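tool=predict chain=A
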Amino acid sequence: MAEGRLTQRDTLVGFTRHTPAIVSSGPAGLNASIKGVGIVHKEEFLPDTIEKIESYLREHPRPAPRTSSDFLLREIYVPEKVDPKRISTIELALRHTYQNLRNGGPATLLFYEPPSVTYELRCRAECFHDGPLFMFVNGVHDVFHGLRKDWSRTPVYIFTVEEIYDNHPDKMGERIYP
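tool=predict ok
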């Protein structure tokens, strides 16, 4: 954007790729919540990646965006390490979505990029309060946003994709996966 290649609109619309509506149902009733999502590494890469994240956060508790981006591109957004069937997010509010998904269950992630790109991912959700996935997702969040002192109130959801539908007006909910 600063160099004139992206407009402000392009930048803002681009953020919709990171912030789907997460739809759930359960004890809190039917709920939809906009949350930022991210990738998940395959299990075999988690120990090494978590070690690198922890080291990075010790050295850069308040990293500059360029430093964070360099680390994320070098260590996290590595295609061979990414589990293509899983998506993650952090629960910051501990309200309706948490009440519905804290014990797991079905959820739908609805991505929409104006004017007409829209995908519906039907998933199985799991909620983690500790363990490698908890450490990975909270760590990746803090690499970009800065180190938080307490992760005890930020459980992590892992969404395993079971079905994908293309909801573009020309496709009208055509199932594209599996």
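Residues 32-114+125-177 form one domain. Residues 46-59 form the longest helix (14 residues).
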